[in-house]
Design brief:
By secondary structure, the chain is an alpha+beta fold. It has a single domain, classed as Cytochrome p450 (Orthogonal Bundle), CATH 1.10.630.10. It is built from 15 helices and 10 strands. The chain is globular, with a radius of gyration of 21 Å.
Length: about 400
């Protein structure tokens, strides 16, 4: 069967996976069966790339991929020609130039508004005060839901995520669930598709795609954009505030925000793992994979592979190959929203550093999470006029 590791627990992977993944890679090799996951775990960079680039052998199109059971087939849950059919119409609006033209000004304005709202306080929990609300607002703007209350969107998000989690263990052929949240989201997206705003992104993709296909893809874009972008912003702020030398350099030269964000993306990917399912017997990294086996690519492991990233556990502002990370995946499922996520993270980091003097951590803020990794809380303090600095 191949190498097996009974020692890896879900708790290990939730709290701090990096030492565990390093030991697993060193002791068992770059691919090992992990009973706690019920999957082959790929921790080597080159093999992670190989799996992600080979959707014929390692597919997402499997009944165990629960998201499709809740929101319907989409670019997230299909491969081959069906995947291309769903993804291609969305690609032009999410190119770097299109994202800048459509959303750069809104992102800066919304970030300014959020930071201005907390600036007089001198302290805040930035994940919920800035990172999360910004991610929600930008995705709502991108998809034409700007008039929808962010609290409503988050309520939909929570219910749909819960329904997806419930479906993870459902047997093949089980009746797909019906959730009020997805029905309400679909109604709102339908209004955008059929509404009068000619510049709406969803109108641009309605020709090649049916209304139902637009809605399913918009749903996965929205919730992927909220969850992972919130984590990227929070993690980037934590890494800088926890690395005084890098923070000082970025304060002196804001142009370094780009590499600062990129190194944070490498060091702690907001989406730590992605799942694939073997369509045929194969051998990777010396392990025999059987048809139907789950193959989980550890993005965290690949991003910390010392063969690619020397001193991988350190935050190095000037790491020359930081952009080689796999945080946005690779191959046909490379994250469609990568340019938008980078834009939001860079704007958020630049704005909080510029507008919140002597910004500093005010408590523990270590990222955690088995699949999605971000700090549960990001407590910070900063100086305000007339208030003395206290370390």
């Amino acid at each position: 069967m191949g190498r097996t590791s009974d020692a890896v627990t879900l708790a290990d992977l939730d709290v701090d996976p990096h030492p565990v993944l390093a030991r697993l890679r060193a002791d068992e090799g770059p691919v090992a069966w992990v009973p706690a996951l019920g999957a082959w775990l790929v921790t080597g960079y080159d093999l992670a790339v190989a799996v992600l680039r080979d959707p014929r052998t390692f597919t997402v199109d499997d009944p165990r991929f629960a998201t499709a059971r809740v929101v319907g087939p989409s670019m997230l849950s299909l491969d081959g020609a069906p995947h291309a059919h769903h993804r291609a119409p969305f690609s032009p609006p999410f190119r770097a130039d299109a994202v800048r033209a459509r959303l750069a000004e809104f992102t800066q304005t919304e970030t300014d508004r959020l930071v201005a709202g907390i600036a007089p306080r001198g302290e805040a929990e930035l994940r919920r005060a800035v990172a999360g609300p910004l991610a929600v607002a930008v995705m709502a703007e991108a998809l034409g839901l700007r008039d929808t209350d962010p609290a409503t969107i988050l309520g939909w998000y929570d219910e749909i995520v819960a329904a997806t989690a419930d479906q993870a263990g459902a047997p093949p052929g089980a009746e797909p669930p019906s959730t009020a949240a997805f029905a309400q989201l679909a109604d709102s997206l339908r209004e955008v598709i059929n509404g009068p705003e000619h510049e709406a992104l969803l109108k641009e993709v309605t020709g090649p795609l049916s209304e139902a296909e637009v809605i399913s893809n918009a749903a996965v874009l929205m919730f992927g954009g909220i969850e992972t972008t919130e984590g990227m912003i929070a993690n980037a702020i934590v890494h800088l505030l926890a690395t005084p030398a890098a923070l000082a350099q970025v304060r002196d030269d804001p142009a370094l925000i780009r590499p600062a964000v990129e190194e944070s993306l490498r060091l702690e990917p907001a989406a730590a793992v992605v799942d694939r399912y073997a369509t045929a017997d194969s051998t990777i990294g010396g392990s025999h994979i059987r048809t139907g086996d789950q193959v989980t690519v550890s993005i965290s492991g690949a991003n910390h592979d010392p063969a690619v990233f020397p001193d991988p556990d350190s935050y190095r502002l000037h790491r020359e190959n930081a952009g080689k990370h796999l945080t946005f995946a690779h191959g046909p499922h490379f994250c469609l929203g990568a340019h938008l996520a980078r834009l939001e993270a860079r704007v958020a980091v630049a704005t909080v550093l510029a507008r919140l003097p002597r910004l500093r951590l005010a408590g523990p803020a270590a990222p955690r999470g088995l699949v999605f990794r971000k700090p549960p809380e990001l407590p910070v303090r900063w100086d305000t006029p007339g208030v003395a600095f206290h370390a």
